[in-house]
Design a protein that fits this description.
The protein has 81 residues and is α+β, with helices and mostly antiparallel strands. It contains two helices and six strands. The protein has one domain.
């Protein structure tokens, strides 16, 4: 899970995501921006196609890690949706 700043969002989404694709245990890569109301998830099972979550009432579930959290707890900007 990466918390990205506006300056590192592109690096996290492109440059860091690619190496994670080659690490067998890294089935899921999550980017939580500091300044945007969106969480991006890349899953090995979906070919690393980005899933973008923007619903502040929703939740993020990462099954391999048995991790679940409300969107509002992950994004400081969830109140701006």
């Amino acid at each position: 899970m990466e918390v990205s700043s506006p300056e590192t969002t592109r690096i996290d989404a492109r440059k860091k995501n690619r190496p994670y694709q080659t690490i067998p245990p890294a089935d899921v890569y999550v980017i939580v921006p500091q300044t945007a109301c969106a969480i991006t998830v890349y899953r090995r099972a979906t070919g690393r196609m980005p899933e973008v979550f923007t619903d502040p009432a929703g939740s993020l579930e990462v099954e391999p890690l048995k991790f679940s959290a409300p969107f509002s707890k992950l994004s400081a900007r969830a109140d701006l949706a």
